[in-house]
Amino acid sequence: MSTKTLGKYRLIAELGQGGMADVYLAITSQGAAYFSKLVVIKRMKEHLVHDVEFMTMFVDEARIAARLNHPNLVQTLEVGESNGQHFLTMEYLDGQPLHRILNRARADFPTMTYLALLTDVLEGMHYAHELKDFDGTPLNIVHRDVTPHNIFVVYEGQVKVVDFGIAKAAGRMSETRHGVIKGKVAYMAPEQAMGQLVDRRVDVFAIGVMIFEAATRRRMWKGMKEEDIVRALIAGKIPAPKDVDPTVDDELNRICLRALEFSPDKRYPTAAALQEDLVAYLHTKGPRPSSRELGNFVAGLFADKRALTSSIIERQLALRAESQLSIPMLPQGTEASTSGEGSTALEIDPDPSTPFAASSPSPQSVPHDTPSLAAETMLREVNDKRRLLLGAAAALIVLLITSMITVIALRPSSGGPRKMLTVTLRATPLETRFSIDGGPSLDNPFIGEFPRDHKEHTIRAVAPGYPAKQEVIVFGDEDVSMRFSLASSARQNPPK
User: Fold this and answer.
1) I want to staple 350 with a disulfide (CB 3.0 to 4.6 A). Which of 16, 48, 234, 357 is the partner?
2) Domain 420-492 maps to which CATH number in 3.40.50.2000, 2.60.40.1120, 3.40.50.1370, 3.40.190.10?
3) Which pLDDT score, from 0 to 100, does residue 17 have?
4) Which parts of the chain register pLDDT below 70?
């Protein structure tokens, strides 16, 4: 089977790569010639198919995603397997993730528009929290990673929550063990950071963090390291918006503080309860910003990226014959915040707690697995006029040359094809995090691809309460697979 096809789908562009799966923009390649549809394919990496742990995680994600059916949640259309390749088919979202919107808009992103957007997020999350299985049994879904990276805004203004890859749900085969932390530290609730059992109220807390950031136009834990954030959460030292900006409205401050309560029992019990208060607050400030206004704002903000993406897609569709089709990487369009410490710009900069930060790919980072990009849009009908044009052959040659130039322009220049190796890292305890050459924090287990540069790289493993370990390894001709075992401080230093 060609790498350009997957069952009935034809892959036309690469959206990103992650530790467990690769993500592609695809088009249906079967059915009536006059009907086609753009979709997103999340394909599990082939070398992980026989890894029971990763396969179970992939199946769990598919099971949860397939049950979700709400306008504010990304739609999964199919869970499939073709010639041993396991994949999810999701709706294609023509838009941008929230963290890119915030990074590019900075101070121009209206606070009320951000808050209105969060009411849509709360609507979708309440649906997920309340969802029942076919027999009426509550699924008890908890996303555990509701952050600006996993909120998507399409250019028409609809808001979607994406990536239920680490969601907790009843009946999940890969149950998270007590003491294991999953999610981005900067948006974690205290009980989540401590590795305790969690419920829907951790998602409420995460949205409370975003309310804080909308109200103050800065990160809640600005400038703090992961370990310092965890210590603050455990100690209950959670800041109030008014502590950062005294001009924050009293009612918005109250709503935010209740969402950020240290004790889950004092927090809003449901996403719907928080949504109700937030909607009431918006009504006191005038007409609620509409979805159309949000869409127009985002479309204008990313007019350049949208035009480039549309151009690439159109060219790929024109080269739809498999022998001619290339698979370019679509532009990501990320901008990192560069405002100074005293700036009032909304600074949703790359989250240091995620290995896929919103920055340009480097040898120490892998493009974000953006299952994020998964929202439905009907493909423009195949243009029958192309078949009738006598000059089609000449046009295809021109388009092929243009597409090749576009691919070269979009990919990093390396003076030739880049040879990559796979780095696999595992450790005990499970809450261990990794870093490579002092780069961003990486999950445990971690799998990523890096250039075979034949240079030494330092891999460091850290976990709360355990002395860190590190090893130096050369990224040479062989793939790297390492397992760390951290001994607790108590074991290394027994009482005398």
Assistant:
1) 357
2) 2.60.40.1120
3) 66
4) 1-3, 17-19, 29-35, 165-183, 319-418, 488-496
60, 94, 120, 145: the catalytic one is 145
3-state class (DSSP) for residue 483 = strand
- Residues belonging to the chain: 496
**Among 271, 272, 206, 210, which residue's Cα sits nearest to residue 233?**
206
Looking only at the bridges linking them, the beta strands covering 466-474 and 456-463 are antiparallel
Q: What is the pTM of this model?
A: 0.65
Residue-averaged pLDDT of the chain: 76
- DSSP state letters, 210-241: HHHHHHHSS-TTTT--HHHHHHHHHTT-PPPH
* pLDDT tens for each residue of 49-96: 777 777 777 777 777 778 889 999 999 888 888 888 888 898 999 999
Segment 99-150, tens digit of pLDDT: 999 999 988 999 999 999 999 999 999 999 999 888 888 888 999 899 999 9
Beta partners for residue 423, in sequence order: 448, 480
Q: What are the Cα distances from residue 133, in Å, to 138, 139, 169, 170, 281?
A: 6, 6, 11, 9, 34
Token pair listed for 106: 């900075």
Annotation: CATH topology of 96-294: Transferase(Phosphotransferase); domain 1 (1.10.510)
Q: Is 22 a catalytic residue?
A: no
Alpha-helix runs per DSSP H in 219-302: 226-234, 241-244, 250-259, 271-284, 291-301
Sign, CA dihedral 106-123-40-386, equals negative
Rounded to the nearest 5°, which phi and psi values hold at 96? -140, 145
Q: d(Cα 286, Cα 281) in Å, to the nearest integer? A: 9
